[in-house]
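Here's what a typical entry looks like (Oxidoreductase, molybdopterin-binding subunit):
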Amino acid sequence: MNPFTYSKPTDITAAVNLSGPATRFIAGGTNLLDLMKENVATPEHLIDITGLPLREVSETASGGLMIGALVSNADLAYHPLIEARYPLLSKAVLAGASPQLRNMASTGGNLLQRTRCYYFYDTGVPCNKREPGSGCPAREGLNRIHAILGAS
């Protein structure tokens, strides 16, 4: 894992001001920390957003909804406004994971989660997702760790 700095701002403006190209936001960080351990992600700075007011679903002036990055998937799926206005979103979130995961996983974390492809995590092989144009072992016939073989 590469060295990095860490900050935990107390308001959203400070978090935004701290951000930059080599910065990643972190809350639970399950996926990001795995990527950092494998040197797939090498941020120079982590911004911890767990203390920020981002756990609400609220109405916007234009009639839409704003979903905070820290809203749990369970809270999102069962929120009355989501169920009433966006029932397919509610159903999709409920279909996406076990209740235990939905209770802990955040909407922001799900949106920022990187690919789950085994080769993406293996820095010893090329990967178009890590380095565009480098190749893709799965497409080129290397089928170890695949559950389905020979499908396009």
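The chain is about 35% helix and 10% strand.

More examples are in the samples folder.
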